């Protein structure tokens, strides 16, 4: 098992120097943020970045069910048209994204299609490094929001992560954002063990379909228990000498549930803290095998967390100035593999919701047949989105942050 923690990765990869890391990560708590309540311009917007670590399968998130090539490429993995949550006659959302589907219907969800960058890299760490630094052409040593922070005054509380360690995107040359630990946060209590056991037990006289459902549930419980044992064993064996919490997976993502992270963001926004950028994450999207069920569980967590947060933000003036952007380091390959999963791919989708976002489609959907060695060809450079967010959300000049990048998504807001 890969025991590389985010802090160790940062210090060895050159993404951020140790001095910048010390300036932010671990130096602040929630009280330090709340102490800035009332210090910000009430008209300013807030950016919340949600990172899906592991490479989320965009084709089974925003599903091109109207294209015959979709079902042909992944016959066991594809969702039939009758199961998707329709967006139009060609595309629909994963069935687990019911809350986001409602926001789309109300005009509150934007989907940027075909997002990526030239000469894509299929390494988790290198691709995420590219997204964090916004430098696809060469290895970078500062994050794009870290460079913004350098120019915005350098106070770590302006850019906050509720993840176990400071993500590279908040690391600047002279300053770094704050990594605030999420403590005493617990997931909702589940069903009693005896109830779960009953779900997994076969009953005399039941139909074949019900018998298969019980067997599948029993298998799922066995896998869940195996994963718990492996995780607990790994936690005991690989405790960080710094006392740092390890990421949820080898490819990153906070262990704390996403809804708990977003709850802290909501508290900060409602209190009017000075923070302009929040970074949160959800891991586990590296779905090389048995993808359909696992991804649906993860997307369900994402959907509940995002829609609950968006509903809460809609109730206050400060909350109505929040913009949420959801992305992953890459998509997956068009064709399924032999294990009912998908391997590392390239272009995918980016989701935005919140203040002033113009809902609907942005960017061009990539072809499922005109491929680059089996992968989607990107149609929208992710730096177009970054530049637009810097201008329209953070009221900043993208030029010094993004090396004079000129691309924009003019109709996004």
TrEMBL record:
<feature type="compositionally biased region" description="Low complexity">
    <location>
        <begin position="245"/>
        <end position="254"/>
    </location>
</feature>
<protein>
    <submittedName>
        <fullName>DUF1501 domain-containing protein</fullName>
    </submittedName>
</protein>
<dbReference type="Pfam" id="PF07394">
    <property type="entry name" value="DUF1501"/>
</dbReference>
<dbReference type="InterPro" id="IPR006311">
    <property type="entry name" value="TAT_signal"/>
</dbReference>
<dbReference type="InterPro" id="IPR010869">
    <property type="entry name" value="DUF1501"/>
</dbReference>
<feature type="region of interest" description="Disordered">
    <location>
        <begin position="232"/>
        <end position="254"/>
    </location>
</feature>
